[in-house]
Amino acid sequence: MPEWVCGCCGRWRVSVELIRGRYRYRLVQRYPERFGGGKNVLGEVGTVDELADLLRRCTPLELADLRAAA
After folding, report:
1. 60/70 Cα distance (integer angstroms)
2. pLDDT, position 35
3. Which of 19, 50, 61, 62 is within CB 3.0–4.6 Å of 45 for a Cys-Cys bond?
4. Helix, strand, or coil here: 62?
5. 24-54 b/e (C-beta count within 10 Å ≥ 16 → b)
6. What are the CB-based long-range contacts (under 8 Å, 24+) for 35-43?
7. Dihedral of the CA atoms 57, 59, 65, 70 (nearest 10)?
8. What is the DSSP string of 6-61?
9. Which class for 21: exposed (0-12), middle (13-18), buried (19 or more C-beta within 10 A)?
10. Cβ atoms 44, 27 nearer than 8 A
11. Are the beta carbons of 10 and 65 closer than 8 angstroms?
C-alpha cells in the first residue's frame, strides 16, 4: 500500500488503498512513542481534490509537503 508522510516531522501520513475498484486516501495523525504511540484517523476521501481540502482543514500541511514513505 503506497503511503506518504510529511517532510517536517513524520507525524501526518496519507495512505492509499484500492477498495472495490476505487482509490481511497486516508489521513492519519501518528503520536510519538513518548506520548504512548498510536494513531488517529482524521478522514478518508475518494479524490485528490478532497484530500487537499481535508489536509487544509485538519493539518498545517498541503499536498506539496508530503513525501513518499521509506
Report:
1. 22
2. 83
3. 50
4. coil
5. ebbbbeeeeeeeeeeeeebebbeeeeebbeb
6. 39/13
7. -130
8. ESSSS-EEEEEEEETTEEEEEEEEEPPGGGT--EEEEEEESSHHHHHHHHHHHSS-
9. exposed
10. yes
11. no
**pLDDT classification of 7: cutoffs 50, 70, 90:** confident
- Using one digit for the tens of pLDDT, what is the confidence trace for 10-52? 889 999 999 899 999 999 999 888 888 899 999 999 999 999 9
Asked if residues 51 and 14 have their Cβ atoms less than 8 Å apart, the reply is: yes
pLDDT band (50, 70, 90) for residue 1: low
